[in-house]
Design brief:
The chain is an alpha/beta fold and 479 residues long. It has a domain of 242 residues: Rossmann fold (3-Layer(aba) Sandwich). The protein has 21 helices and 15 strands. The two termini are 35 Å apart.
Length: 479
């Protein structure tokens, strides 16, 4: 399996090279040279599979030539050993899916299912990709030799998941930037209380978009990137996309009906994993983008112009993103894999902060995606309504998706045309203030989070300046 850049200016790379590089050297994002294909019979066979086997069947299509079968199976087993989905309360209508110990699929209403993706070490969906990425990363790095410097920009959950996956591993230094004051207290504590010497937290005086821009600037400095062996574990790393595509296969096979997936979306990685599954043959009806007030993707699909607006702080901070990095992957595919157009479009966007989508590209996107935006008031109303109707508590990100799912699911059920699967991306206890505002009481605190407030924090507060961040990284690297 070879990988190419969306901008066409990078040499073909193996999965292991893509894994360790993160971003392509031409500034583009890696995608497979051609998508592996699953037949209808192979897709149907995902029903009833154990999670580890399902993950192997998908990931092995990408890792061929980089990891032996036994090595990949060992990495998968280690990655998901710490997940702990618990039984649902009595009285729930529950579909019992394959992979129920990792990603439970729960019916919550007419034509509506929650796909719970938050049963990993940091109680967020990022664990599903980053735990296996960490396992494979360590193996690939040991084979290559030397050290690696991992830099992650996070709007809340990627940072803690990266730390959980890479903290304490040999020959790796991890630098995580989060926007100061714009993540929940629990999200911050999950990052800043890490005791691992190879973990360095930066509270950036700016937005997530500022942090993401700094990461790209670090990669653009070829000398610096080479000298520190820079790599990324954000969803710009294709290994994240590949790992996240697995649960689209397992959920669709479990239900056995046409599925519309509703995805709370910020950086476009999780929803693009759905497109990856579609391009591998999974017959998804539609991918629904659900956003908060930071609605650049809704405006792009509805108006045909991709242009950031002001960055709004919301109750769903992990989606407080105006420039969605992975949207470039969708544009590349929607353009018929035209790397020249993609490179020019991204250059124009970087210069003007505005991209008018050609009609053919826009229509291709609309054929695959639809989009809804909901403000904080709608988010709180959805949390309250779902709690009142079902007893179930949603985090604010899942609530944004549920607001769309509650519109779509009943229509699909009544028409007999399928069901809506709402991706539940975080445990509600990670956002107790929002939940309390909606329901009158904070959610119960799971054991994984109970001790966080008693632990000391370690972080540096730095301005959103790439030069200063570069100096900080250089000063903290392990000799």
């Amino acid at each position: 399996m070879n990988f190419i850049s969306t901008r066409g200016g990078a040499p073909r790379a193996s999965f292991a090279e893509v894994l360790l590089a993160g971003l392509a050297p031409d500034g583009g994002l890696y995608l497979p040279e051609s998508w592996p294909q699953f037949s209808p019979d192979e897709i149907a066979a995902f029903k009833g599979l154990a999670w580890n086997e399902a993950a192997f069947r998908v990931l092995s299509r990408f890792t061929d030539g980089s990891f032996a079968e036994a090595e990949l199976r060992e990495a998968i087993a280690a990655a998901y050993a710490g997940f702990d989905a618990r039984p649902r309360p009595q009285g729930w209508r529950q579909n019992t899916p394959p992979a129920r110990d990792i990603v439970p699929l729960v019916e919550i209403g007419k034509g509506q299912y929650l796909l719970e993706l938050f049963h990993g070490p940091t109680l967020a969906f990022k664990d599903i990709a980053l735990q296996i990425l960490g396992q494979l990363f360590a193996r690939a790095l040991a084979r290559r030799g030397g050290r690696a410097t991992v830099v992650a920009a996070t709007s809340g959950d990627t940072g803690s998941a990266a730390i959980a996956a890479l903290g304490g591993l040999p020959n790796i230094d991890v630098f995580v930037m989060h926007p100061k004051g714009r993540v929940s207290d629990v999200q911050r504590l999950q990052m800043t209380t890490s005791a691992h010497a190879n973990v360095h937290n930066i509270a950036l005086e700016g937005s997530f978009d500022d942090a993401q821009s700094i990461v790209k600037a670090l990669f653009a400095d070829a000398d610096f990137a080479r000298d520190v062996s820079l790599t990324a574990v954000n969803s710009i790393n294709f290994a994240r996309i590949a790992a996240q595509s697995v649960y689209y296969f397992t959920a669709a096979a479990a239900l056995g009906v046409p599925v519309t997936f509703v995805v709370p979306t910020g950086n476009f990685g999780d929803v693009f994993a759905g497109e990856a599954a579609m391009r591998m043959g999974l017959p998804i009806q539609k991918l629904v983008i659900a956003t908060n007030a930071n609605d650049i993707l809704v405006r792009a699909l509805n108006e045909g112009v991709y242009a950031p607006g002001p960055s709004h702080a919301t109750l769903s901070p992990s989606m407080d993103i105006q420039v969605a990095s992975n949207f470039e992957r969708a544009l590349f595919e929607a353009s018929g894999r035209d790397a020249d157009w993609t490179a020019a479009a991204m250059a124009d966007f970087a210069r003007t902060r505005r991209l008018a989508l050609p009609s053919a590209v826009l229509q291709s996107l609309r054929d695959r995606y639809s989009a809804f935006a909901f403000d904080d008031a709608a988010t709180l109303a959805t949390i309250a309504a779902v709690k009142s109707e079902t007893g179930r508590i949603l985090d604010p990100h899942t609530a944004v998706a549920a607001a769309a799912g509650r519109l779509i699911g009943p229509r699909l059920a009544e028409a007999g045309t399928g069901a809506a699967v709402i991706l539940a991306t975080a445990h509600p206890a990670k956002f107790p203030d929002a939940v309390a505002k909606a329901t009158g009481a904070p959610p119960p605190v799971p054991p994984r989070l109970a001790a966080l407030k008693t632990l000391p924090e370690r972080m540096e507060i730095l301005p959103a300046n790439a030069v200063l961040i570069k100096r900080f990284i250089s000063s903290r690297l392990t000799p």
